[in-house]
Specification:
By secondary structure, the chain is α+β, with helices and mostly antiparallel strands. About 20% of the residues lie in helices and about 20% in strands. The protein has one helix spanning about 60-75, and strands at about 1-5, 30-35, 40-45, 50-55. Strands 1-2-3-4 form a four-stranded antiparallel β-sheet, with no helix packed on it. The longest helix has 17 residues, at about 60-75. The chain is globular. The chain starts with a strand and ends in a 10-residue tail after the last helix.
């Protein structure tokens, strides 16, 4: 899975039988992560509020660290919501 903002890649495990239709997302939701395997949407974020979602499984340490970094960034700034710090 690739973070589209930073270009960083996370190793994830995929086991899904559904897909998010990117064309059906509302205007205030953007794709943040995409599968490098099949191009499916792996993460989304609202552009007008600090809310986001991943749909991939990563090792716990990586998953929690990544999510906490996004949450803490959103709490400390409102100018760039849902961006992962370097």
């Amino acid at each position: 899975m690739q973070d589209l903002d930073t270009g960083k890649v996370l190793i994830t495990s995929q086991n899904h039988g559904f897909e998010v239709d990117e064309n059906g997302l509302p205007d205030n939701v953007r794709v943040t992560h995409r599968s490098l395997f099949d191009g499916t949407v792996q993460g989304i974020a609202f552009t007008d509020r600090p809310a986001f979602s991943f749909r991939a499984t990563t090792p716990k340490r990586v998953r929690y660290r990544t999510m906490w970094r996004i949450c803490l960034t959103n709490l400390s700034t409102t100018s760039a919501p849902n961006k992962l710090p370097d």
